[in-house]
Amino acid sequence: ADNAAYWVGEVFFVQQQYEQALRSFEGLIVSYPKGNKVPDALLRAGLCHFRMGHDKKARAYFKRLKELFPDTVAARLASREDDR
Questions:
Q1: Is the dihedral of CA 18, 21, 23, 29 positive or negative?
Q2: Which terminal Cβ of the chain has fewer Cβ within 10 Å, N or C?
Q3: Exposure of 31 by Cβ count < 10 A (0-12 exposed, 13-18 middle, 19+ buried)?
Q4: Residue 34 class from Cβ within 10 Å (0-12 exposed, 13-18 middle, 19+ buried)?
Q5: What is the dihedral of CA 42, 44, 47, 49, to 10 degrees?
Q6: How does pLDDT run along the chain (84 residues), one tens digit per residue?
């Protein structure tokens, strides 16, 4: 179920519907906190905030991702985004 929620968010993200994507990613994070897609959802939620001009919120998601899942590809990608 967390996988499905992630991909719903991803579809919205690719269509540049960032508010809807953010709702999907945040819903996944809350509903499935131990799910395997949580690191990716945190990354995408941060990217949604960046795209909407909410840099401070984006960085908060990236920080949380790097703290909770430091050894993931998503955390490495968040570090790259954070350096921009």
A1: negative
A2: C
A3: exposed
A4: exposed
A5: -70
A6: 889 999 999 999 999 999 999 999 999 999 999 999 999 999 999 999 999 999 999 999 999 999 999 999 999 999 998 776
Neighbours of 1 (CB within 10 A): 10
The two tokens of residue 35 are 């799910």
Per the listing, tokens 């984006």 go with: 58
| 61 close to 46: Cβ distance less than 8 angstroms | yes
Distance CA 17, CA 8 (A): 11
Could you tell me the pTM of the whole model?
0.94
